[in-house]
Amino acid sequence: MFYRGFVRFLSLVAGTFYRRIEVVGLENVPPSGAVIFAGNHPNALIDGLLLASLADRSPIHFLGNARLWGFPVLSGLLEALGAIPVLRREEHGGDADNRAAFARVDDILLDGGCVAIFPEGISHADSRLVTLKTGTARMALHAAAHGDNDVAIVPFGLTYLDRDRFRSQVLLQFATPIPMDDALLEAYQRDEVGTVRQLTAELRERITHVMLSAPDWATLRFIHAARRLYKPRSTRLTPASYVDLSRRFVERYALFAANPGVQRLRAEIEAYQAELDGLGLKDYQLSHRVSASNAVRRMVWRTALVIVLLPFALPGAIVLLPVAWLAATVGSRFSYDIDDIATLKLVTAVPVLFSTYALLAFMAGVGLGWVWAVVALLLVPVSFFATLFVLEKQAQLLISMRSLLRLARLNADIDALVTRRGELVAAVRTAVDRYADPTIRRMFDARDFSSPEAGPSRPASSKGS
Fold it and tell me: N or C terminus: fewer CB in 10 A for the chain?
């Protein structure tokens, strides 16, 4: 009961922090039977929050770093949720005895339950998977070999479009499960170590296929720039199609990176991106140029929306903005690693926000009567969401104003950049035609590329690059 209520709460928190959360491959999660969820770990506790609230299985028992149990309040919550502490050998050396943790995992799986593990062993901000630990494979094979229940590993990948930014987007994608079938168990009986290594390698391949990774951040930045140039202006990408298209660019670039023409194209794109950065511009400001009159109309419309909603948003803003400032300060000043900034923001904001919410309702009840306490309980959340909407519209308004000023001031430079951009668009699309996998259906067809560059956009399907 507590677990399900807490998961609903996590869903609300995740849906508030991230503007859009997309789940792909949920049909790959078995509705029953023993399951080990195994995925990448780019964003500390946020990863577990998203999996618990979106995997459509409960309860999920997470394996976590034993040091988290050193915090009294957090340890109580972890125990209530059925989490399992694991000692990391990097921290405890020879004292890292995890037999009790493995025995508990065994019991859960033999009972047909669910376990979640991040086989990299650590949360990190690298651009690709680090070496996977073999524990996931060992646990799955051991449970399947010693029980009657079917056991499967369900690989998953998490991709954050902007990991630490409030109201960003995220994709959770599940790969096809890896069943512990008879052939695998027979191999396990013959060669335990070799089978564990083989299964770990397969798990790595499947996780990599459902996440976005690259050899280094410079390459990933180049891939993002190339993808933006390739995409037709008449389409917009969902998180799933964004990741799918970017992943295909990474895979094909890895095959042809040594080609002189590809190297020259990368250098030209990176030079273009560097010039944009120097002028303080974004690529979309060149690809979706609008007239001054259209820009002014948008700013007037957004200003009108802000003015209309401001009375509803003001009470929430009085509470929300100080909490947001506190969360941002804690996230930036007290994070040990770049991957835990978003976690610290949430861990700070959620209890402070709900405590303030309860205090406001209590004060309304004491000062004005309990009817007003009920009114506060109902209206304060509405005001919070109105505040979020107004803040987003204000941000868009400021971006529009800044863009209009820059475009007017840098008109000559921008005309030259637009010309260069057009040349790069043609070069990227030619390269895609030459190097794309011919066996995969393309995401965009000739109609997409021949459609007018301005106008309303339509969603792109994930058909390939």
Answer: N
Report if pTM > 0.85: no
Distance CA 132, CA 121 (A): 7
What is the DSSP pairing of strand 151-160 with strand 178-179? antiparallel
**pLDDT confidence tier of residue 291, bands split at 50, 70 and 90:** low
The tokens describing 164, both together, are 């630490």
Residues linked to residue 179 through DSSP beta bridges, in sequence order: 152
**Contact (CB, 8 A) for 251 and 305:** no
SS3 annotation, 400-435 = HHHHHHHHHHCHHHHHHHHHHHHHHHHHHHHHHHHH
CA 414 to each of CA 25, 320, 407, 408: distance values in angstroms, whole numbers, following the listed order: 42, 39, 7, 9
Bigger pLDDT: 141 vs 463 = 141
pLDDT for residue 440 is more than 80: yes
CA distances, 317 to each of 289, 312, 331, 451 (Å): 33, 9, 20, 43
Q: CA 69 to CA 253: how far, in whole Å?
A: 43
Contact predicate 125/136, CB 8 Å: no
Tell me the average pLDDT across 51-66.
91
d(CA 98, CA 88): 9
**Hey, is 226 helix, strand or coil?**
helix
**Alpha-carbon span 327 to 352, nearest angstrom:** 9
* DSSP structure class, residue 369: -
**What is the rounded CA–CA span in Å between residue 246 and residue 243?**
5
* Contact partners, residue 12, CB within 8 Å, separation at least 6: none
Answer with the residue of higher pLDDT: 172 or 400.
172
List b or e across 38-72, with b for residues whose CB sees 16 or more CB atoms inside 10 angstroms: bbbbbbbbbbbbbbbbbbebebbbbbbbbeeeeee
